[in-house]
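Retry 2 of 3 after timeout on previous attempt. Resubmitting structure tokens to design endpoint.
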């Protein structure tokens, strides 16, 4: 290689340079007639430019610019503590999403190749943002009696502030997920949390129950964006082999909300009135908006548009007339209306596929049972023989919340372990790489974890119903029952959400949006009907009815997926055009499987070291 130089008189020449291996951080390149070496540093990409036959001088440029006369559009390769060295960083001027240039964590070309620490940071930010929506519903539960007195409303009407909030959380994610697939994740996060802050503040200054319900609907719809888009973000940055654990951490956010919101709501409403709970949500939303603004880059895969053929203009064609221009304008307006009003609803058509329908049904039954339990706790402990204050009522939600956190922490690792075990047992390997890699299927996640969960939470609900009315002497029994209910229901939520992102790998946020729509609609119905049913048939018989229904249908859903899931998934993949790897079911001996398992473990360890 020759490096350009010049003598003291300014004449250029070439100086022979011995060949040597490229150092780490250097990269050979060739663009047009240019060849040279790119040297990455912490500050800039330095390029030594070699122009054959011309003997130019070595130049250093930012953003990989070869020369003023021949700029390129290649990505920046500046090193960063957030990304791996071989993962190019998108220059600030080209970053996507609202105010994308201000993010501390840079956008990269391949989000799956972020360092592990960066992935966990992004996951934690999304999880905390996801806590806002359930916090908005749980924070109101201890304050409902005070709210009813101040605004002169009945218990059933005040329950609508929770039920309508949940209904909005079921509908709005259809639009958020649809827009996120085109506008990107970051833009949706910033817009929705700005709306959440505004509507939470308006809820705090509501003058009557009607205004409060309307503001709660809008606030619930705004906060619900993360429940659908957040799961898409997790799928953007985590490989399937590690996605179960990451999804478990993600779900810690929505479950931290139910843990702290009743305590916070009870304490604030007892000391400052119910309006203080809405001001708390306003502050929380503002803090999360700042974290998203600075710490959450765009992670949606950058889809390259197809290049349209360039056609030469027809000299004989007539110029555009007013009629054709008007027709095009009408067509464009109709297309825009369709995109904003109709297209988001089309994601509900995914329910025609049995894997999606049965998975969503399993989560919806569990979620509806959860809100029956929430209303029952508030109703039971605010009346004789307990007559607890709002603060103590808030403490009664601690037991199920601790169950959610326990299952979220353990359940994700359990999911990944079960999936790997089932793939090994079936002998599914991708032999196109060396060593062969396991091929994971969504239905692999349904093992003993789902059988346990589908029986644990319904039976726990029944036990709670029969022990909650026994008074303080036996108060430990319903507390233990609600803890186990939290464990069982969370195992269902985590498994179903992860499977939906894998059943629909190219439409992950849409699959989760469908799940949120159905389950939040069911929870809305449960929140509305729970109190009248408790008054009509009693707490124990309501819990018995809901528990038996959930136990029978939940186990039936698992049985159908285990028996027919693979066939249904293949039909769904063909219909959606999902790219599915060829599965090698060749028979291997136990020694071969053991050796492959060891090679896979060794490769995973090496990958973890490289990513750190």
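Retry 2 succeeded. Sequence:
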């Amino acid at each position: 290689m020759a490096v350009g130089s010049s003598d003291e008189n300014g004449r250029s020449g070439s100086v022979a340079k011995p060949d040597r291996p490229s150092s780490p951080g250097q990269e050979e390149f060739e663009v047009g007639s240019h060849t040279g070496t790119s040297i990455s540093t912490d500050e800039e990409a330095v390029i030594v430019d070699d122009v054959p036959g011309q003997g130019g001088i070595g130049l250093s440029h930012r953003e990989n610019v070869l020369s003023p006369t021949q700029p390129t559009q290649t990505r920046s390769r500046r090193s960063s503590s957030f990304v791996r060295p071989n993962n190019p960083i998108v220059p600030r001027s080209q970053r996507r999403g609202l105010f994308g240039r201000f993010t501390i964590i840079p956008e990269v070309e391949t989000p799956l190749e972020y360092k592990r620490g960066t992935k966990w940071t992004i996951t934690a930010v999304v999880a905390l943002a996801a806590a806002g929506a359930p916090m908005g519903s749980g924070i109101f539960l201890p304050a409902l009696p005070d709210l009813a007195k101040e605004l002169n409303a009945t218990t059933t009407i005040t329950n609508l502030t929770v039920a309508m909030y949940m209904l909005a959380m079921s509908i709005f994610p259809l639009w958020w997920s649809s827009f996120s697939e085109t506008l990107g994740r970051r833009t949706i996060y910033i817009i929705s949390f700005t709306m959440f802050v505004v509507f939470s503040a308006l809820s705090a200054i509501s003058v009557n129950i009607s205004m409060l319900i309307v503001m709660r609907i809008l606030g619930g719809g705004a906060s619900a964006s993360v429940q659908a888009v957040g799961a898409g973000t997790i799928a953007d940055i985590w490989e399937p082999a590690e996605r179960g654990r990451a999804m478990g951490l993600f779900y810690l956010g929505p479950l931290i909300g139910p843990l702290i919101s009743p305590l916070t709501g009870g304490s604030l409403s007892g000391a400052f009135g119910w309006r203080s709970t809405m001001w708390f949500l306003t502050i929380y939303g503002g803090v999360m908006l700042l974290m998203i603004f600075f710490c959450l880059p765009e992670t949606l895969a950058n889809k390259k548009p197809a290049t349209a053929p360039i056609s030469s203009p027809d000299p004989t064609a007539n110029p555009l007339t007013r009629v054709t221009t008007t027709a095009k304008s009408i067509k464009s307006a109709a297309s825009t209306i369709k995109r904003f009003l109709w297209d988001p609803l089309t994601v509900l058509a995914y329910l025609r596929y049995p894997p999606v329908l049965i998975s969503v049904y399993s989560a919806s039954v569990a979620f509806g049972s959860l809100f029956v339990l929430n209303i029952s706790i508030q109703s039971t402990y605010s009346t004789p023989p307990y007559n607890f204050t709002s603060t103590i009522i808030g403490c009664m939600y601690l037991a199920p919340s601790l169950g959610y956190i326990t299952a979220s922490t353990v359940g994700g690792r359990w999911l990944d372990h079960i999936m790997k075990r089932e793939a090994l047992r079936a002998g599914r390997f991708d032999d196109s790489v060396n060593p062969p890699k396991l091929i994971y299927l969504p239905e692999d996640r349904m093992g003993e974890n789902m059988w346990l969960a589908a029986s644990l939470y319904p039976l726990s609900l029944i036990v709670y119903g029969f022990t909650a009315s026994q008074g303080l002497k036996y108060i430990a029994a319903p507390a233990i029952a609600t803890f186990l209910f939290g464990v069982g229901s969370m195992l269902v939520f985590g498994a179903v959400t992860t499977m939906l992102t894998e059943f629909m790998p190219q439409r992950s946020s849409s699959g989760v949006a469908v799940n949120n729509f159905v389950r939040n609609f069911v929870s809305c119905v449960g929140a509305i009907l729970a109190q009248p049913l408790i008054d009509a048939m009693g707490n124990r018989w309501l819990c018995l009815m809901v528990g038996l229904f959930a136990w029978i249908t939940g186990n039936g859903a698992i049985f159908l997926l285990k028996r027919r899931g693979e066939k249904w998934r293949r039909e769904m993949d063909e219909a959606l055009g999902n790219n599915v790897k060829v599965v090698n079911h060749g028979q291997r001996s136990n020694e071969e499987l053991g050796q492959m398992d060891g090679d896979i473990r060794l490769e995973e360890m090496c990958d973890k070291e490289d990513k750190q």
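Attempt log closed. The longest helix spans residues 539-576.
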